[in-house]
């Protein structure tokens, strides 16, 4: 999510913040944005292998205190390293073996100086100690930070969220999407001993400091994980679990909920099984069997935290009791379970290198909702759903954001991204091939970070159709192709307007109730039919607009 920034609520929020948003896009790019959003020389020379985050949540004082041991391998020689941590949190010490490293701060970035240059191909590690009062989230999950809340019964209920703003809002790391720790991450969370801390991966052990009245929960993730996918949730949690016979083995499904939510959760979380079933059909193996699948209740709507999807959708179908397509189909499933779980394939398995390419997460997750519907309810409902979500498309800005700056593109990345993929499926017009492309994406980019260009060229190559102009049109412009057509007895004339140069996407149309394919371009074409043309209709699955020209 952010990215739950969707539909009705999304539109509301975006309207509210529209001015600030547009301003943010046109304002000059700051040095802090470049440091955050690009692969700087101080990031480029080393590759993440592992994070070992130890953090204590001091609830009374709303403080954090901890350390992150960063293990890396050098890709080239280097002596200056960029580590990100946002104020008001501060790094207090950086240990390298027996020595301490010098460092200086520049806003959200720390420049860490090694004693001497480290050679290429060396594995090494540093331990970064930090503490302070972290930023409080003003609107989770859309604005990240810590939520120091209380649950319905008055017990502490604390959540972290970091999408967009970055994981360095609460822990020190290499805060860029292009690099993930290849060997995963250890997350050890210390909290008052009457509470439970839930994080990503599997709970390996719990230490109880009886005298200090504290517990430390040690969570382990063995797969690569993207930074914003890391989260901690603290509350009076209880858990229940089940074994799911997946297509590729037994998958542990674990549910962490508050005690008074348990009954509702047992009922509503049945959607997890049918979600995994549908997505293993469409995309192949759930990407994190080793780390299990978890659903964890939180105080905000939800987020795709890797192997610990967070949930706050009131145990009801739809999205916060709304129907994203306004067609009824949205109430047939729990939006948060389906949408956020889809991110395990698109977002967590395949992750964007640059935040400008966030549509790879959100466009595919939006599209996945309709695949879930197709798997369980059939094509008609699925088409109604994905086409229905077009009502939220604003065409305000391109879907692709500004590279190297951590500036995302338009919120259209959800419904327009989904409808672009749906359109492409219908251009290919071969369900078996489309299924193999979806499964192929997941398998061939398994646990990788990718760019839009990689996704584009992959789909084009596998489809055997040059789709470059289609991607160009929908991802990089705000124009929706317009088919202009004219009917004169037995002849049909047509051409595209509002398209990028060379755009020639074929369309399925129905003429006198009979389906045929036309291949419009910017140049006007005329076709002659054996009988008079009485009705003409563009197949609704193609996201284009059409206009009949009546005058000469
Ligand atoms: Zn999402």
Short description:
By secondary structure, this protein is of the alpha+beta class. The chain is built from twelve helices and 29 strands.
Number of strands: 29
Mass-distribution shape: globular
Strand order of the largest sheet: 5-4-8-2-1-11-14-13
What is the CA-atom radius of gyration, in angstroms?
25 Å
Distance between the termini: 49 Å
What would you say this structure looks like, in words?
This protein is an alpha+beta fold and 552 residues long. Helix content is 25%, strand content 32%. It is built from 12 helices and 29 strands. Strand 23 (482-488) and strand 24 form a beta hairpin. Zinc ion (ZN) is lined by residues 1, 3, 304, 339, 343, 362, 365.
Notable characteristics:
globular; single chain; 29 strands; eight-stranded mixed sheet; alpha+beta; about 550 residues; binds zinc ion; five-stranded mixed sheet
